[in-house]
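stage 2 :: seqdesign
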């Protein structure tokens, strides 16, 4: 038997984003559920066909879900929070969308599940919510139906299932008594908290192991009955700094699950090496283990340690093909690893991608690649071919991968010299804003008219002058709406921008923008990450023209809107020729120049968005100091050209910032706007515990849900914030940009937001007057 090949997962959006468009049409009521499912299953079948065409030994089934795999697993297990009680009349498809969006047909609008980053990626997962007395009502009929459909391809199947312990680790308990329960879950009576993968582990969820083991066992038996031989059990938390309670839980759980005659469980890990969990992982009573060697440090050779300690009967799946990079693999170099591993493992060696291919675009064949990077790239479909070539020994040198050596790049980082208190006093005196000033995060709806004008312009059917006129019309409309709403600090709405990173990448030298290189971020939201192919420089001003025009339409302050260097880097595919640190510093210098030009053009408030500030933080605590050093340095450098009375804002969203407030404080932005609405005000508690000296705008409502919260709903956030942040340093804003909403939804929500701010403002001023 040759080397077995498989993947951990494949992009589920479709080559032309068919799943996205099918979902959105269904949500709008433009198609039936039967039509939606037919379109979704066509994408699913195309993914399977791609694996068959490439010649993979095993067909991966179960990685295809409609919104998010953790969300799907929660619904399969019946983990439905009480506020979604009306979901009982929905089937599983609509239940998933209800939990993710807070809206479903014939159901009341409610707050959606919290959404946060998947480990150190730009993908988002939905956080399951447990109660302390959680009960489970399992229904895996959708997964079993997938298996039945996949049998038509006449290939050996490998089914993907979220691991029991990873599912529990990424969930949270929402009861008021949860913190106390978490502190005593291990029985020692001491408090244990652990920050890893962007989430503080809630040890109380370990109590559900006994309830879930029989459910998983039944699922495995059902899969076996359908002729499935292999199950990929995703347990990526094995790469984290696990507390002893979780390590012990792995041994106990898999000892309970091991008796599955004829079914082979493969524990899958990714995004890092096993580290201190090596001995634990290799000795779990399962048939095999998958490791991601693409994240090993140069010269580490951790995979050799795994081979040395792996019991002689176990399969080892080596993740050799990088599931998060768009650069082609050096098959000659990787073949050396295969040859060495095969000598030790023989037919127990499997080859795979390091992680799911969910994180890269679907197919390079749709692109017109510039000559200078021809042969250097590989998207998901090409990675399948790389994997099979590696297994078959069909190896040849790729001369395109010989990157020229570059001289090291460094930058003497600059920073603003005046302390925040001095800056903020000068800014308040200059702006004369009311208490609790209202603003938005930057973008307004990307309407059909905007998209049509941009498409016509890109095709050459609309002149530059006509396109500019169309964008100015949209900017004028955004200014007009903000005037009517009574917003205090305006934005121009970003009509001219397709994406907050792609826009700047198109104006900076050193990037290549693919045409169809879409990647799922969450649900139906897809992004098209730029690819960094050379050193970054700024040939000319990028935003001054648009902000200057917006300023000419109003007497109100209009914020200049920039994307920060860390976010541009983290939401792009990094280069092969430079370190991430070097690229980030290059970007910081480009943004510093833009800040200076905006300031010279009379822009008084400049927002430098760092939505992805924490995103690429190393998963292990010991590896984080260097990351924080260059990310904080980069932000401070790009804002260093601001004068004392120029106010610098930044924005962060949908990540877990509980373990990095000192670094956020070190960024020293005058005002930070940050997501709090979906996360149940957890972040405000962190600010309360640790303190934050600068101004803050906690997001008062969730823009990713189509529901319109009331002013009273929004007030909960501000009342919570006032317990920690003085009113003089508190702003009111949504929790993210509004580009994905329509104008009706936007105006309805902002009307409630302004109403709430004015009410609280009046109460505070009245209280002050009578004090």
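stage 2 :: out
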């Amino acid at each position: 038997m040759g080397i077995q090949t498989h993947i951990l997962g494949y992009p589920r959006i479709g080559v032309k984003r068919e799943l996205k468009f099918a979902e959105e049409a269904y949500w709008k009521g433009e198609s039936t559920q039967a039509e939606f499912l037919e379109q979704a299953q066509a994408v699913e079948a195309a993914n399977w066909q791609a694996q068959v065409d490439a010649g993979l030994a095993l067909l991966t089934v179960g990685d295809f879900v409609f919104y998010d795999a953790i969300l799907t697993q929660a619904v399969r297990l019946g983990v439905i929070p009480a506020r979604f009680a009306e979901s009982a009349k929905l089937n599983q498809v609509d239940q998933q969308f209800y939990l993710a969006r807070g809206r479903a047909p014939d159901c009341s609008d409610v707050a959606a599940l919290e959404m946060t980053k998947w480990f150190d990626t730009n993908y988002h997962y939905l956080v399951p919510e447990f109660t302390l007395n959680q009960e489970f009502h399992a229904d895996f009929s959708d997964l079993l139906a997938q298996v039945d459909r996949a049998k038509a391809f006449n290939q050996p199947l490998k089914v993907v299932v979220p691991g029991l312990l990873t599912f529990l680790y990424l969930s949270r308990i929402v009861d008021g008594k949860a913190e106390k329960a978490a502190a005593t879950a291990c029985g020692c009576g001491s408090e244990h908290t652990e920050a890893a993968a962007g989430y503080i582990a809630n040890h109380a969820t370990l109590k559900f192991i006994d309830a879930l083991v029989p459910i998983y066992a039944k699922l495995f038996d059902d899969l076996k009955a359908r002729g499935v031989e292999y199950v990929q059990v995703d347990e990526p938390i094995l790469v984290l700094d696990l507390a002893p309670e979780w390590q012990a839980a792995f041994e106990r759980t898999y000892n309970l699950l091991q008796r599955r005659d004829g079914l082979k469980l493969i524990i899958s890990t990714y995004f890092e090496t096993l580290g201190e969990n090596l001995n634990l992982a290799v000795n779990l009573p399962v048939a095999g283990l998958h490791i991601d060697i693409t994240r090993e440090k140069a010269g580490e050779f951790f995979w050799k340690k795994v081979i040395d300690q792996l019991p002689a009967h176990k399969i080892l799946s080596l993740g050799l093909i990088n599931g998060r990079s768009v650069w082609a693999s050096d098959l000659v170099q990787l073949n050396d690893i295969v040859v060495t591993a095969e000598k030790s493992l023989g037919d127990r060696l499997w080859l795979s991608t390091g992680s799911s291919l969910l994180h890269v675009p679907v197919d390079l064949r749709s692109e017109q690649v510039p000559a200078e990077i021809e042969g250097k790239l590989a998207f998901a479909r090409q990675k399948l071919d790389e994997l099979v070539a590696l297994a078959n020994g069909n190896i040849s040198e790729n001369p395109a991968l010989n990157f020229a050596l570059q001289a090291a790049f460094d930058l003497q980082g600059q920073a603003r010299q005046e302390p925040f208190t001095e800056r903020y006093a000068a800014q308040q005196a200059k702006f004369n804003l009311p208490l609790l000033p209202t603003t938005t995060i930057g973008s307004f709806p990307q309407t059909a008219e905007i998209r049509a004008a941009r498409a016509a312009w890109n095709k050459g059917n609309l002149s530059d002058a006509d396109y500019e006129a169309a964008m100015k019309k949209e900017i004028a409309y955004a200014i007009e709406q903000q005037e009517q709403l009574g917003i205090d600090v305006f934005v121009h709405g970003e009509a001219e921008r397709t994406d907050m990173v792609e826009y700047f990448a198109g104006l900076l030298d050193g990037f290549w923008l693919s045409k169809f290189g879409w990647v799922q971020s969450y649900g139906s939201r897809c992004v098209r990450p730029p690819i960094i192919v050379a050193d970054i420089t700024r040939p000319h001003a990028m935003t001054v023209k648009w902000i200057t025009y917006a300023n000419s339409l109003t007497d109100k302050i209009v914020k200049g809107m920039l994307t920060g260097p860390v976010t541009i880097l983290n939401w792009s595919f990094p280069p092969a020729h430079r370190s991430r640190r070097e690229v980030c510093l290059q970007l910081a210098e480009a943004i510093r120049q833009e800040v200076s030009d905006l300031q010279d053009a009379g822009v008084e408030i400049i927002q430098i968005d760092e939505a992805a500030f924490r995103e690429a933080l190393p998963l292990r605590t010991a590896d984080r100091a260097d990351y924080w050093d260059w990310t904080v340095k980069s932000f401070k450098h790009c804002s260093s050209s601001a004068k004392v009375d120029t106010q610098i804002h930044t924005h962060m969203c949908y990540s877990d910032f509980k373990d990095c407030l000192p670094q956020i404080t070190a960024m020293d932005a005058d005002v930070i706007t940050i997501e709090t609405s979906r996360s149940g005000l957890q972040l405000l508690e962190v600010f309360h515990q640790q303190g934050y000296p600068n101004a803050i705008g906690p997001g008062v409502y969730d823009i990713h849900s189509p529901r319109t919260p009331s002013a009273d709903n929004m007030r909960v956030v501000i009342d919570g914030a006032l317990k920690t942040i003085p009113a003089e340093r508190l702003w009111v804003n949504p929790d993210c940009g509004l580009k994905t909403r329509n104008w009706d939804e936007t105006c309805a929500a902002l009307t409630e937001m302004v109403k709430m701010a004015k009410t609280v403002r009046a109460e505070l001023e009245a209280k002050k007057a009578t004090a």
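stage 3 :: structure notes
- The domain at 4-394 is CATH 3.20.20.210 (TIM Barrel).
- The chain has two domains: 4-394, 423-770.
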